[in-house]
């Protein structure tokens, strides 16, 4: 009896894995493709170039609520407000650099997926590598001093 239950669970897990592996290749309903069907006129942009700037900026900025999703994909109230601000600022003729500077002034470097390279951020990235190298040196010296021959 227990064997049949495990067999059914295994088949179910196998089917779930197959669905997960093929999800990108299956045709998607219109709900999943809505963001691709929007034109620059639908959002009130005069030119396609302004719309593309808006899209690129929204994809390069992090949602301040979700934090693991960009503004373009997020539908939280905060993201919608920020996208509205981006849209109005682009329509007023602000440059991408001005918009990024304003966003980081308001919300900090975390809002950008490409934050500026500072001494602290470099230390955060190099720290684990330096710790691993230091650990390797300590272990190697300890092995040498203990006389371990590897047998």
Summarize the structure.
Helix content is 59%, strand content 0%.
Write the layout of secondary structure elements.
Layout: H1 2-22, H2 48-60, H3 77-91, H4 96-107, H5 119-146
Helix pairs in contact: 2-3
Please, could you describe this protein's structure?
The protein is an all-alpha fold and 151 residues long. The chain folds into 2 domains: 32-115, Helicase, Ruva Protein, domain 3; 117-146. The protein has 5 helices and no strands. The chain has helices at 2-22, 48-60, 77-91, 96-107, 119-146. Helix 2 packs antiparallel against helix 3. The chain is flat and about 75 Å long. It starts with a helix and ends in a 5-residue tail after the last helix. The model is unreliable at 30-35 (pLDDT under 50).
Instruction: Please state the CA-atom Rg, rounded to the nearest Å.
Output: 25 Å
Q: What general outline do the C-alpha atoms trace?
A: flat
Based on secondary structure, the structural category is mainly alpha
Distance, first to last CA: 49 Å
Average pLDDT score:
76
User: Within the CATH hierarchy, at the fold level, what is the topology of the largest domain?
Assistant: Helicase, Ruva Protein, domain 3
Would you identify the CATH H-level superfamily of the largest domain?
Answer: Cytochrome C biogenesis protein
Q: List SSEs in N-to-C order.
A: HHHHH
Please provide the count of β strands: 0
Helix content: 55-70%
Estimated share of beta-strand residues: under 5%
The helix tally amounts to: 5
Uncertain stretches of 5 or more adjacent residues: 30-35
- Overall tally of structural domains: 2
The largest sheet is: none
For the record, what CATH class of the largest domain applies? Mainly Alpha
- Level-2 CATH architecture of the largest domain: Orthogonal Bundle
């Amino acid at each position: 009896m227990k064997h049949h239950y495990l067999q059914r669970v295994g088949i179910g897990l196998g089917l779930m894995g197959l669905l997960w592996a093929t999800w990108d290749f299956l045709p998607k309903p219109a709900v999943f493709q809505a963001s691709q069907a929007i034109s620059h006129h639908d959002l009130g942009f005069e030119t396609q170039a302004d719309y593309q700037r808006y899209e690129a900026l929204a994809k390069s900025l992090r949602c301040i609520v979700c934090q693991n999703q960009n503004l373009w994909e997020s539908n939280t109230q905060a993201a919608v407000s920020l996208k509205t601000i981006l849209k109005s600022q682009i329509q007023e003729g602000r440059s991408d650099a001005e918009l990024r500077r304003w966003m980081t002034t308001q919300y900090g470097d975390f809002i950008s997926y490409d934050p500026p390279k500072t001494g602290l951020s470099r230390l955060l990235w190099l720290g684990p590598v330096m710790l691993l190298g230091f650990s390797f040196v300590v272990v190697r010296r300890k092995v040498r001093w203990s006389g371990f021959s590897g047998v």
